[in-house]
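Re: that chain you flagged

S.,

Sorry for the slow reply, it's been a week of failed gels. I finally had a moment to sit down with the sequence you sent. For the record, here it is as I used it:
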Amino acid sequence: MSVFGSPANAAVTNPNNDILVSEPPNDGITSLSFSPAALAPKNFLVAGSWDNEVRCWEVQQSGQTVPVGMIKHDAPVLSVCWSKDGQAIFSAGCDKTAKMWSISTNQSQIVAQHDAPIKHVLYIQDMGNGSPCIVTGSWDKTLRYWDFRAPTGQPMGSVPMPERVYAMDAAGALLVVGTADRKILVYDVRKPTTPYMEKLSQLKYQTRCISCFPDQTGFAVGSVEGRVSIDHVQEADRKNDFAFKCHREEGAIYAVNSLAFHEQYGTFATAGSDGVFTFWDKDSKQRLKQFRKMPQPITATAFNSDGRIFAYACSYDWSKGAENHNPNNKNMILLHAVTDAEIKGKKAGGKPPGR
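Prediction finished late last night. Pasting the structure tokens below so you have them in one place:
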């Protein structure tokens, strides 16, 4: 019997011969997150989706997946993440709440709330005083910090944003927020209410996604214009900032929907509305490998904790409006076995991959 109560996926197009995750969500997939190193050698994958569900699978050594559980929100889920110890999954979305799903009890509870949908929820291991928290970014133009260990319904802090939060990521003490007016705000979470740096994006159009470098020295920004910028936090490193074109085909320009860094090598993946995912080396400014085009946009991606598995979700992203939505297209999550030849960086000193 199905854990999720839905039949297995029908025949699908799989040009990269990757492994299909069993019983994928029934609507557009918005967010993917792998379990942290604390649970290794086991790997668990969590997905949030427009059908209001948060699903979790165990990824077996063979790469095959087994559904292990699911919780529901009252509206579409836009973001999912794990606690560093692997004992909790956090999810947030259009019901204006964030939930904590406890692994030990299999129970969920509301731990955060906003006045508008929450676009992102992130786990912060140490606020500078040894205490963890979660941070939520919302379309109500606020960033809020929450103590999930003893939820009170009130945030520990609320920071006004210049516009709606569209993209957000954190690594260590680095927190980067992108808002609707192309503003980029960089925070040190040990001083959570005052931005360390605030600037306009290098990119000319709407920010779609942000991902922090694993070494916390900078971040990548993707936009709807088929372009990615590489940005550094420290003034001395900003001479190395650059931007490049990607996810373009025969004059058509596609949104960059997702960015994900490889924890060990510092290389990264982009994925777009064109249905393509590509591995890049920012230091040598080279494309490492481009994979075959999927039949639908890629909406979310994630590397697992040791970087050997790359998960990507294929579903409609509404970039061409309701008239181009085909309900017969299957939502898919696929697992790619990553090799060093594909993802390990090359010697620095190359030209930018695109102008």
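What I noticed first: Residues 309 and 337 are 5 Å apart (CA to CA).

Talk soon,
D.
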